[in-house]
Amino acid sequence: MQVLFISLFVSSFLLQQPQDSVENTAPILCIPSGTTSYKYPNNQYQTFLAENDFYHQLDRTIYEEYNNATLNIRQKIAFKDVPKAEETFHLKTNFIREKIDLSQHTFIHPNRQVYFLASYKQSNQETHHKYLVIDAETQTILFGNSIYQSNSMY
Questions:
Q1: What is the pLDDT of residues 131-146, one digit of tens each?
Q2: Distance CA 126, CA 78 (A)
Q3: Antiparallel, parallel or unpaired: β 71-78 and 113-122
Q4: N or C: which end of the chain has fewer CB within 10 A?
């Protein structure tokens, strides 16, 4: 009897849960506390330039891939997927680094479309990593990083 009661309770609880939707699947890290107003609201249903077209029209003073780069990445993704894109970039380049923390970017909707651009170049003497996250709608730079390492031994 108790097992039947517990399973009915659990079943009714599970049936009351909201259906998975785009809004319900966003990481908690990206949800602002106390407000649903975003400086950069959801724009997932809008159409923007393809990654390569965006890169080719981008001002080279803002971002340019390394000459003779070992790896270049151009992606249009949801903002919530930036940590995964950065992690993939670092895994492909054998670069150990902490995962990016989006908790300070609560003003950006998790499903906001952004461009993730990354470039990597390595030689015997040096290694260069850089990436940039740019809002797809406003073309505003949201954040990025650039790292230089000397490979020479002293």
A1: 999 999 999 999 998 8
A2: 32
A3: antiparallel
A4: C
